[in-house]
Amino acid sequence: MPVNVLYLIDSLTHGGTERQLAELIRHLDQLRIRPHLCTLKPSGGLFDELAIPKICLNFSSFGSPSLFGVLKQLTSFISQNQITIMQTFFQDPCLLGAMVKPFTGIKLIGSFRDLGFWRTSSESRKMKLAYPLFNGFIANSQAVKDHFCSMDGIAPAKIQVIYNGFDLSSLPSTATLTSKLAAAPVVGIVANLNRPVKRVQDFIVAAARVHQQRPETRFMVVGGGHLQPELEQQAKSAGIDVYTRFTGMVSNPLEYIAQLTVGVITSETEGFCNSIIEYMACGLPVVASRVGGNIELVQEGENGFLYDMGNVEQLTAAIVQVLDNPAELPKVAAANRMLVRECYSVEAMVVQTCSYYAQILGRAS
C-alpha cells in the first residue's frame, strides 16, 4: 500500500520553495507515495496544475476566531485521506502541524530552507515550542542544518540534508553555449525583488563598474517585486539603464537564464540557492556571495567565484575575470551540467526524500 503524505504550505505560487515542492510531487512514484496538498491561503498557478487531493484552509492568523475551524478542517482532511506523514514548509504551517499532531497520530516532518532571516525573538520562541513535536526535519543544505542545530538545539541526527533537485528535462532548447559566445556577453541575476536580503543594489553598482571596463556587456535582472522601481532608478542614475533589462516577475526564469553569460547572486543570506542550480544547469559560471549554502555549490575557480558579501569591488573583479576568459566557458559549462546531473537532479531529491520517509516510518527503504 502506498504511503499517504500531506504537504502543508502557506500557498503555492511561483517561489523557489513552491516550485521545488511542485517538482517533488510531480516526480513521486505514486505506487509508493501518494501526495496530498494543503495550503493556508488561496493559490493559483502551481496549485491548480497539480492533479492530487488538495484543500485550502483560508487561514488568516492564530489570533482569529476562525482558528478552531481551521484546525478542525485540517484534522478532518488528515483523517479522511488516511495521512501517515505530514511535511510542513515555513513558519505558520509548522505551528499548525504541531497543533494537530497530538490528535491525528501522524508522523511530522519539518522543512528548513533558509538561514532564518525571518526570525524575531517572538518567532523563535514559538518555533522552539513546536520543534519537539516533530519526528524529523529536512534541510536543503549543510549550512542550513548547522544553523538550526546551533540556534535551536536540535540534535544533528534529527535533521537530514537533502539538496534541492533540478529537472534537466526543463532546460530550454536554446540554452547552448555556442549562441552565447556569438553574442555580446550578458551578466544577469535572478532574485525576488521583494526581499532586501537579496541585495540586488550591489548587482547594479557592480554592473555599472563592469560596463566601464567592458562597454559591450549587457545586464539582466530576472524577477519582480516592490523594489523594482527603486532598482530601475538606480540603474538610470548609474547610466546603465539602456544596457539593463528588468524582466519583472516571470513564471519560467530558465528562458532568461539561457540568454546569460554569467549568473550572479548577491544575497546576504542563502540556505540553498535554486538560482545557482539553474545557472549551473544552463552551463553558466557563477559569481556568488560567500554565504550559507553558496559555499557548498561554488568551487572557487572551477565553476565560478565567491566574493565577500557586500564587497562590490570583489564582485566586479570576479565578473570581469569571467568575461576576460571566454576560452574557459566551455569547460565550466560541461563541469556545471555534470555536477547538476550527478548531485542535484530532481530524481536524486525524490529518491532521498522517499528514503527519509521510510526511515521516519521505521521501514527499510
Describe the overall structure:
This protein is an alpha/beta fold and 365 residues long. The protein has two domains: 3-165 and 345-361, Rossmann fold, CATH 3.40.50.2000; 168-343, Glycogen Phosphorylase B (Rossmann fold). Helix content is 41%, strand content 17%. It has 15 helices and 13 strands. The strands form two sheets. Strands 3-2-1-4-5-6-7 form a seven-stranded parallel β-sheet, with helices on both faces. Helix 8 (200-213) links the parallel strand 8 and strand 9. Helix 4 (91-100) packs parallel to helix 5 (121-130) and helix 8 (200-213) crosses helix 13 (312-323).
Task: Give a quick summary of the entry.
The chain is of the alpha/beta class and 365 residues long. The protein has helices at 16-27, 46-49, 67-80, 91-100, 121-130, 142-152, 177-182, 200-213, 228-237, 254-257, 274-281, 294-297, 312-323, 329-343, 346-361; strands spanning 3-9, 33-39, 54-56, 85-89, 107-112, 136-139, 159-161, 186-190, 218-222, 244-248, 262-265, 286-289, 304-307.
Q: What is the tally of helical segments?
A: 15
**Quick one: overall form?**
globular
Kindly estimate the percentage of residues that lie in beta strands according to DSSP: 15-25%
Q: Would you count the extended β strands for me?
A: 13
